[in-house]
Design goal:
The chain is an all-alpha fold. The protein is built from nine helices and no strands.
Amino acid sequence: MNAETRPTVRLVRSSVGALAAMKGVFARDMKVAFRQRQDLLNPLLFFIMVVTLFPLGVSPEVSFLQEAGAGILWVAALLSVLLSLDHLFRHDFDDGTLEQLVLQPQPLFLLILAKTMAHWMLTGLPLVLLTPILGVMVHLDGNSIAVLCLTLLIGTPVLSFIGAIGAALTLGLRSAGVLLSLLIIPLYIPVLIFGTGTVAAAAEGAPVGAYLALMGAFLVLAATLAPFAAAAALRISLSNG
């Protein structure tokens, strides 16, 4: 092997090592979540309860629910994701796993990317799968339900990525849940506005391509930048701890 091929071989080996580490972190988080089923079910039950109780507490009229249904489901999904964010790094912090992840030779932002993807698979994706049933409950038509599911499929990963930054910043602090909400909810507002706006435009028969493209841009930016920000926040939190 000549000197020119050695850097390429090292780069390939490092890429394979990073990919294996991401797969390991992802698989571990999935296994741990299924062992702690209470943390897994709480956001889903909260999502169902909010959507179910809202018509009882406000108005059961069909016209009102058709108009507000998308907003109800989006707000419930947002709060459900927020409810689960405190556990994103908490268990690893408590048992010392998080320090080991920081000391790994692989880039920390890739490991956080894997953890965030696992969080979305366990929280955001089930919410999307439940949405058609709950959409029928609030009298949304088929087209609105399809567009709502698509916006949640694009938007819930954005919620997880942004939430990872807040979870890393508030790690180890007292009243972390309250601080996390204060930090993250303002950043969630654009996603909420465009998510509900897309469904409203679809209900009026307007084109929704621009809305979906903008939400896709949110997802690309969040997936690209949030792991770096969360990695820096984790190092700060661990050094202060």
